[in-house]
Every structure is written in structure tokens, then in C-alpha cells.
Amino acid sequence: MAEAQIExxxxxxxxxxxxxxxxxxxxxxDLDKAVSPEVxxxxxEAWLEYQILAxxxxxVSPATQVAFAAKFGEVQVHVMNxxxxxxxxxxxxxxxxxxxxxxxxxxxxxLGTLHWHIDASWNARNGHSTFMYAERPPREGGQTHFADMxxxxxxxxxxxxxxxxxxRVVHNLDFSRNRRxxxxxxxxxxxxxxxxxxxxxxxTHPETGRKAIFLGDHAEFVEGMDYDxxxxxxxxxxxxxxxxHLIYRHSYTPGDFVFWDNRCxxxxxxxxxxxNDIRVMRRCTxxxxxxx
Length: 292
What we know:
The protein is of the alpha+beta class. The protein has helices spanning 31-34, 40-50, 62-70, 149-154, 158-164, 173-181, 188-193, 227-240, and strands spanning 14-17, 24-27, 52-55, 93-96, 127-136, 144-148, 168-171, 197-200, 202-204, 211-213, 219-222, 247-250, 257-261, 265-269, 280-287. It contains 8 helices and 15 strands. The chain starts with 13 loop residues before the first strand and ends in a 5-residue tail after the last strand.
């Protein structure tokens, strides 16, 4: 990774890039100032430019997390309500390996997160942005990896571009949950609320005008293609668009607050010792205003 350099712009905070093409840490600003009418437009500008922004080691209450996310749009209440951890903030999706006695359970809370995906790509109003707060990160592992989907598209060979520019893929939450968990974690009622939906593999970001890959682990099959052939193509393309040099790896410390643009990134978690370590994270996702 390139050594971080401090960017100088007409912003009342420092921006330290995390990767050559994307990702930045915000320095010298707390969330109270970040949401002010004077500063928030600059935070939004920096977020569009860098795709991922990170605050290190700050206090963010559940209510503050949801309120900050709401500055970006409507915050989702996830259909899998078994992950809701706060009665007052049903928008928060809690990822924890602690059991009812507050001890490590040995089970990973969501195996699907270990694979490249885009939050809510399975929804008619899919993920606009996601906001992750580290309450209790593990001592080792439990990272979030991010992949730059702008650069992934720009680096595609002419042959790949010809194949994917008009391709549509069906995204299905039930499909991705079943194959990763080895059982059906969704109820019939939950499945009915989020039927499979098709999206172009290449989409134009509505705010930046740049093209980005839209794929990930929720993508089940390619429209108009044999199912098995489409599955193989999706798996191959997910690897093609996540080369090492386009990945930022975030190692959490307590109080890290990271938020990203789902329209131009993919992400995945890494595993950790679920039997002897603790990972408690809370996440919320803002939905796009309309399909694009």
C-alpha cells in the first residue's frame, strides 16, 4: 500500500488517503461537527471522491450512528430481523459472536459476509451507503476488505467489457444465505418480502457519472444464459474484479467508524477466532432513492 499522504483542500479537516485509488481517513473532526450544515456537504464531497471514509477511535452511540446515516438518505430496516439488536434503532444490523451469557459462541454470526458482496444488491432499492461501527473488534482477524469497482471496470480487458456491458444478473438474498450458511436462515415471510431482482453488471454512478461493476455474492444467475454456465461466469468475474492491488484492508480498533459507497465498491469480512475472541459490530445501510 502506498504511504499515506495528507491531502490539502478547502475542507476544515485532514484527509489521509488509504490507497492510491480510493479510501481515506478523516482527521481532526468529530461527528458533531461533521453533521453541521457547514461541514456535511464537504464530508459528502470527500465521500464521493474517496468511496470509503474512516474515523478512528471515536464514540458513536447507536442513535448517533443511525442519525448520521440518515443524512445520506433513508436508513434500511433489514428484512432479517433476527439481526436487529436495539429496540430503539431497528435500522442497526448487529454482528456478534457473543451468546446469551456474553461469552464467545464459536459460531460466526453471518458467514455470507466473508464473501465479496454489495449490501442490499438483492433489494429493489439497493444499498446506497453503509455505516459500520466497531464496538469490540477482535484481537486478530475480523477485518473488512474493500474493492474499488470503478477501477475494476476501467481495468477490464476489451473482451470482458464486450461480455458484461449489456449483461444482467439476478440477485437473490435467499440464494446467498442458503449456500453460505448451509441451511435456510430466512423465513417464508422474509423471502416473500425480497424476491429475486435483476440488475446490469455495469452501472453508471448517478452522482459521479463513472461506470462501476455491480456484482458480488448475492448474484445468482445471468439472464438469458444457461444456469450453470452463468454461475461459472459470475464466480470468475467476481475474482477478475477483485485483484490484490484494488483492495483496501481495514483492521479495526475500538471506536472505528467506517462508511462506504455501495454503488462503486464491494466488500467482505475476514474470519476470526469465534470461540476465543470477540467481535461486536453494528451496521446500517442507506437505500438508494430509486433504481439507476
